[in-house]
Amino acid sequence: MSERIQIRIEGEGGATWLVVETHDRDIIGKQVELRLLQIAQVKRSNPVHKRNVLLSRRFTLAAAPSRFALEGALDSLFAYRGEDLDLQLKVELEVDDGIVFDTDIERELRFPERLPPREAVPAQHKDVHSPKDRFDFFANLRAIPAKARLIVLLLVLLGGPVIVANAVVGARDQFVPESRAWFYDHSDSDGESESPLFKALAGSGTIGLALWMAIRHQLKKYMRFAAQLPPGLVLRRGARCRPEDIVSGQARVALQQAMVRVVAYNREHGQYTQQEKDGNSTKTVTKDFKTDARGAVLYQQLLAHLPANAPLGAALTGEVNFDPIFDALYPPVRIGGSHGLSLCLEAQLLHPDYIDHDVELADPPLEAADFYRRQA
């Protein structure tokens, strides 16, 4: 059936039309329900998709093409292929041609986009928003204040044995009758069999993650690092600002080969479903997710040497250029409130020996129309 109906988008004299055409005499005269949709399609397990209805019409298929004016409905639309989310334009047709079941057609459409083609960005986008944090634990430990150093040592000395002991208890309970288990039983709340060792390892993993986050927080105390946008700054083409207007800080030790960056990236938003225990029953819950995706570097400077206690901003030169946001990234868009793309800025200090610093500046004020203007 789908091959017997042609669907396309045409532009003419500044106007855009959705055209539905058929030459099949068997379906000419049939009633058709048409919906033009903007789709946010999640690419995770148990996905929850969202749709925005742009056009809805009921009409009779005729021998001549049926044309529907879109009247600017596509002006801000663009196709997007991301990490965990795609944005698509689709059309759905329901042809009233059956006694019991009607024929349903769903098709993705290509359309003329006002958004200019995006410039290439680094293939490893994670190097922009999530660079690998390589550091020397003992060098970092020596660089932080004595109080923070003591806290780190206590966390390591006390937390490590707790993690090991918890795993040992789980292993012991795995191989004894449930009546002799010390802590982890052999069943869940529904009475189904469950591994004590698995539960212990999951618990040790949670404890280990919390322990590492606490240690990381203390290791960052070799310096103070902060970032904020200058008051009144709106991101637009041609906008510039000094890096010291965004980034500030001061290190208690001299820094060698520190990299200061300001980056921007798109963040994908969507939902998926997950099974969770609720007492003696299991229920399906909807979870939100965020995935950092395409990114661009707006500013970077390598500082060969920054003296101890010297203001970080005073060592920075040049300008932060916001044009790559509008040339390489995608405009913020939301579908159904929970799905879509947002834009984030982030200031970073990357050091080869110490834990990196980063400050996120989410949803900055910007001139969205500049995404659709070509670079002069």
Task: Give a description of the structure.
With 376 residues, this protein is an alpha+beta fold. It has two domains: 2-108, Immunoglobulin-like; 126-372, no CATH class. It is 19% helix and 40% strand. The protein is built from five helices and 18 strands. It has helices at 126-129, 137-143, 146-174, 196-219, 323-328; strands at residues 5-12, 15-22, 31-42, 47-48, 50-60, 66-69, 80-81, 85-95, 103-108, 223-227, 240-241, 247-251, 255-278, 281-306, 320-321, 333-335, 339-350, 357-362. Strands 4, 13, 14, 16, 17 and 18 form a six-stranded antiparallel β-sheet that branches. Strands 3, 5, 7, 8 and 9 form a five-stranded antiparallel β-sheet that branches. The chain has a three-stranded antiparallel β-sheet with strand order 1-2-6, with no helix packed on it. Strand 7 and strand 8 form a beta hairpin. The longest helix has 29 residues, at 146-174. The two termini are 46 Å apart. The mean pLDDT is 89.
Instruction: Work out the number of β strands.
Output: 18
The SSE string, one letter per element, is EEEEEEEEEHHHHEEEEEEHEEE
Q: Could you name the ranges where pLDDT drops below 50 across 5 or more consecutive residues? A: none
Largest sheet: 6 strands, antiparallel
Structural class: alpha+beta
- What is the total domain count? 2
Q: What's the helix count?
A: 5
**Net shape:** flat
Rounded to an integer, what's the Rg over CA atoms? 28 Å
